[in-house]
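Sequence and structure are no longer studied apart. As an example, we show below a sequence and the tokens encoding its fold:
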Amino acid sequence: IRKESGRILLFDARVMLYCLSGMKFGIIGSGQIASVHAKAITAMEGGTLHSVFNHRTESAGEFAAEHGICSFSDFKEFLADPELGIVTVCTPSGFHLEPAVAALTAGKHVIVEKPLEITTERIDFMIEAAKASGKTLACVLNRRFTPAMDVLKQASDEGRFGTLTSASCYVKGFRDQPYYDAVPWRGTWRFAGGGVLMSLGIHAIDALIHVAGPVRSVRAVAGRLAHTEIEVEDTAIVIVEFETGACGVIEGSTCAWSKDAHPTRMQLAGTGGSAFLADEAFEVWDFKDERPEDAAIRANLMQRAEPGLDAKHSPAIDFEPHRRNFEEIVTAIREGREPSTSASEARKAVAVIEAAYRSAQNLGGRVMVE
């Protein structure tokens, strides 16, 4: 409380602390993706890394020591910390609901690593919990936060493709059995929610929806062609019908061996232009009506022979899209609006994948996306 010019001004110490140091983050989980979160939070504006929880005391302690933060092995104590404002959830995909709902109920904002959850039913439960708590529930959709995606999204929003007729994505990776054996929940329906579509393809599917719009229906085939010791699909091909009438293909594989990882490709084409994206660099940027900025895009964001825009060759920038994603969410919280990667946005890709699985079980019959 301070008296100034005859007026009494009230200052909330918590607000002042927030303004000075940003929102304090805690991470649930201390595995590989948690390390990416930690780097992104450390680099971001508007947030500081504060704590980590893992029920395994040793793992939490090692992670905390590496990043200079507090560690907790008791979940209730972690959430009871009055300094903690927001948590990121880095548990296995099928274990997102429980910690997220607990954090929301404890009055914390929540960001969940992809996928938000492995079924739309579980996602809807989380959305209701967020509404009841009055806190923000968001997801990591980091492929939306690259320079190439920025210009691709802008071109789509401005109608530069004319009538969009085709929008597709191709995710061809390689996962051998030791990859699944290293983390037992991988390759299971119960905890991973699916195979190549849910684990490897979901970011590309989200990015496709982000630039091409909602999906109306799918027809899919999927199965295990190379793996024998996992439950889920290692190959899937999905024919997609968008709400706009455009058509496309989602192709995924964890059987595509390569000495170097294949790029994830997204291709959009219409009566006014075409753009083919490979990871973070364009293979094609070609529009009927040229604009001055097209030359800069071709000069700076086109594919080159040497590594540059491909994040997998540069660990130093791996966390950059996460950083931008976190900053956008914190800004949205400050402004009292939904973030661009809200729970309802994250639900869209899961709904498409669910529909694809139902179609594959129905011998490729058409399934509407709900």
Observations:
- Confidence is low (pLDDT under 50) at residues 1-20, 305-317.
- The longest strand covers residues 164-172.
